[in-house]
Amino acid sequence: MAGPAASAPPRTQLVGIGAYLPARVVTNDELAQRVDTSDAWIRERTGIRQRHLAAPHESCAFMATAAARAALADAGVAAAAVDGIIVATATPDQAFPAVAVRVQAALGASGFGFDISAACSGFIYALSVADGMIRAGQARTMLVIGAEVYSRIMNWDDRGTCVLFGDGAGAVLVRAGEAGDARGSGVGEPGILSTHLHAQGDLGDILFVDGAVGQPDRPGHLVMKGNEVFRHAVTKLASAVSEALAVNGLDHNDVDWLVPHQANLRIIEAIGKRLGLAPDRVVVTVDQHANTSAASIPLALAQAYGDGRIKRGDLVLMEALGGGLTWGSALVRL
Ligand code: UT7
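^ thats the input. predicted complex w/ oxa(dethia)-CoA below
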């Protein structure tokens, strides 16, 4: 956990936000032609209306690069200034090299790059690692990207999972606070206030990928005991958001926006209610994107920031839970 401390270096600032979605939109009705499901069931149980699915050329690295370029453009920062790239993904194009170094090459950036595997919590994990590295002085300007092509690990005959996921990528550019900057300790100052990471490995078998990813003779497919994951999600996410607020001496009234992982509208609404947040303070994209795993938070952030709902100075609470189980939260003043 990286939390505030009196003598801490200046906060890591989140200075750019970007996203990429594949052009192809697949509706629930289209899926109902393939498996025994219906638009009504999917909307009622999950809130999902459609998802974007990648075309063959839209690899994980391709989408991650596009989102990274958008985040750099938003920040007005050149790729040459980036000295570290982290990609959170459970669906890399290859076992190695990492998606992050493919992105580095495409951008013409230098420094270091690596991927993080924490399933749907990957973006929170990656943000936490980047924050720690920047505060430790190991990097100054980093891209933190969530990019996923879950369509490639779906069992398209399993109605219990294939209707739930989508593809896409989101990115943020984070930068060290200025040296000697006195700002950074008050909760009103911009930057990452704290991040909180958790894992419980003995729950690894309720959401996992079988077989081996990338091996055509032994393809890996996502397997999920949905209702068990659901139960854990509600309690663990509620505790992760409480933890983030308590560590910073804040309560729900201080939060401007909840930007949750987008797995299921019922989970999102339950956490929003626990926080006492009005529904219009909770960013929902699951209806349009479905569950894009590690990409879902930066995609949701990019949408609400891009349409002007989330503004600079707002306090944004993010949370996610995914395979592992892994879960966590992050509190960021934009
Ligand atoms: O991002 C990582 C974290 N993931 C999550 O947080 C996901 C958490 N879980 C969920 O969102 C929900 O559990 C699901 C949306 C996956 C499932 O909803 P549920 O209300 O928990 O349904 P269920 O799995 O208990 O299934 C209820 C019924 C079953 O039929 P029977 O056994 O009651 O006859 C399923 O076979 O719904 C059936 N079902 C479907 N019916 C139509 C399952 N999938 C479908 C489907 N269409 N696509």
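The pocket of oxa(dethia)-CoA is lined by residues 37, 41-42, 45-46, 120, 159-160, 163-164, 226-227, 229-230, 233, 263-264, 267, 291, 321-322 (CB under 6 Å).
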